[in-house]
Specification:
This protein is an alpha+beta fold. Helices cover 35% and strands 18% of the residues.
């Protein structure tokens, strides 16, 4: 189907050999430069996420976590989890005795070990040809010499000024004279440049051992946290085998817990019980069923999902046909489920997803995040590292599998994805947006596989999601008014979302024409490019 060329919009990008799709043009450009220099998709992905960590510091960074799925030309898949753990010394009992009822995003106890850099290093070692010195030089240049702030980044930045002012390091490095930078203004991050230069010279050890690790631990402990230099030194990225399900002739791969990829697969299994192909893609029936399916899948997440070693049920059990049938029987196509999920995480948390395919046919699906906008809002005063607040995903509920404990990984929102068909990569894709991500994966896949949308149309298509506090159904402004009225008639409490819901990138392998087709979300500042 053609888009309306008289209206604003994007066309998908076509290229014969290699491609990158990211949320920032400078990151996409960095990836393509690495590919042209002979680097692999893994090398290019690390170069791109490093640039993102400088030019979108509210979204992602070396103070956050990273997950990847890599597809080889023969369709074989490998996964990596480089999410950080809670401090070894922390316990739920200590926090409760200290007066906490929950770990809020602004709590010092939400700061977990930054996992990303060990993940980048492992990705280079396992699938790359280049060194940190090769792939970090562009990010170092932007941090040292400056970068112009793009429109969406400026929009997001201005909403976090008061938050950043609470910490001396964050205020010093991430505000300009006490305010957010304006669109087009040049920002420089000299302390972060020096930190990246140390990593380029010495590897990730420069971050996890020595002065930087000691500074991170000292900053957290000075604010009452438990994180230690030993906690950072102990961090390692681990290999994972992706978990899969089939949908409309394609095998969809996600990573197993502690991430919420299993939720996307549960949603797809439930969607197979309904004829989505016959629905209006922006109509009442489609969005109603998507929301009801999400309620059930997310309810299971909030009860069962945790660090894999602490879960009571395996992914295989959660995806079992009997379990899916029981859930599907609860869905009424004409009414709203009376039972609401126990907890829903915001679709507004800040994350960077990107994907790269090289001329050998390797595909990398990578996601990296510091969780909320500017993470914890704490930046180390010498090294300029913004620390994540991923520990806010833990609970203090006694007996819950996701209860915080020393050395434990929290339930995690960020999830890369990959699709395979006939033992070859079919599409590499992902969706940003905190809790929205599993719903987003199911949504964009359905747009493509059920409704025949190309990779750009499937990303552009209007989105809906449930609000984390009011449980009202948020709908984007592009959702038709007649659909909103119909959803209200079914019993949904509907509100227009104040912000775009999520963001996405995708690259499709067009085997018939021996080309790659890329899409990038207009809700962000990025682009897909190839050659």
């Amino acid at each position: 189907m053609f888009r309306d060329f008289q209206r604003p919009g994007r066309s998908p990008i076509f290229a014969p050999s290699a491609m990158a799709a990211t949320s920032h043009p400078l990151a996409t450009h960095a990836a393509l430069e690495i590919l042209r220099e002979g680097g692999t998709a893994a090398d290019a992905a690390v170069a791109a996420i490093a640039v993102h960590s400088v030019v979108e510091p509210h979204m992602t960074g070396i103070g956050g976590d990273c997950f990847t799925i890599v597809a080889q030309p023969d369709g074989s898949l490998s996964g990596m989890n480089s999410s950080g753990r809670a401090a070894k010394a922390v316990t739920a009992e200590k926090l409760i005795e200290g007066g906490l009822q929950d770990i809020t995003p602004d709590s010092i106890h939400a700061v977990t070990v930054p996992g990303a850099l060990r993940g980048w290093e492992k990705l280079l070692r396992d699938h790359g040809k280049m060194t940190f010195a090769d792939v970090l030089k562009r990010a170092i240049g932007y941090a040292r010499d400056g970068f112009a702030v793009t429109p969406r980044t400026a929009f997001d930045w201005q909403s976090r000024v008061d938050f950043l002012k609470r910490d001396a390091g964050a205020s010093r490095y991430y505000l300009k004279d006490g305010r957010a930078p304006l669109q087009g203004e040049v920002m420089r991050l000299p302390a972060l440049a020096e930190t990246l230069e140390a990593v380029a010279a010495e590897g990730a050890t420069a971050f996890y051992e020595g002065a930087i690790a000691e500074e991170i631990a000292a900053v957290v402990q000075a604010k009452g946290g438990y994180l230690s230099a030993d906690d950072l030194a102990a961090h390692e990225a681990i290999d994972l085998s992706p978990i899969t399900t089939d949908y409309q002739g394609v095998t969809v791969a996600e990573l197993p817990p502690n991430g919420q990829g299993i939720v996307a697969l549960v949603m797809l299994e439930l969607m197979k019980r309904f004829d989505f192909k016959g629905m209006d893609p922006v109509g009442v029936e489609r969005f109603h069923l998507e929301v009801e399916i999400a309620k059930l899948a997310y309810s299971g997440r909030d009860r069962f999902l945790a660090d894999r070693d602490h879960m009571r049920f395996s992914p295989e059990e959660l995806l079992g046909s009997d379990q899916i049938d029981r859930l599907a029987a609860l869905i009424n196509p004409k009414a709203v489920l009376p039972r609401q999920p126990e907890r829903i995480l915001s679709p507004k948390s800040d994350t960077t997803y990107l994907t790269v395919v090289d001329d050998r046919g390797m595909a990398v699906s990578l996601i990296n995040s510091i969780y909320h906008g500017f993470g914890s809002g704490i930046a180390t005063p010498k090294s300029g590292v913004l620390l994540q607040n991923r520990g806010a995903c833990f609970t203090l509920e006694r007996g819950h599998p996701n209860q915080i404990a020393g050395g434990k990984r929290p339930m995690h929102t960020i999830i890369p994805a990959m699709a395979v068909q006939d033992n070859k990569p079919y599409m590499t894709f992902g969706v940003m947006g905190g809790g929205y991500q599993p719903c987003g994966h199911a949504h964009v896949l359905s747009n493509h596989l059920d409704f025949g949308m190309d990779v750009q149309q499937m990303i552009d298509c209007p989105r809906v999601f449930m609000d984390e506090t009011s449980l009202a159904l948020q709908v984007e402004t592009s959702v038709p008014g007649s659909t909103v009225d119909g959803l209200k008639a079914l019993g949904h409490e509907v509100v227009r979302s104040s912000d775009p819901i999520g963001g996405s990138q995708a690259i499709l392998f067009d085997r018939a024409n021996s080309s790659l087709i890329g899409g990038s979300d207009p809700r962000k500042d990025g682009c897909a490019l190839g050659y």
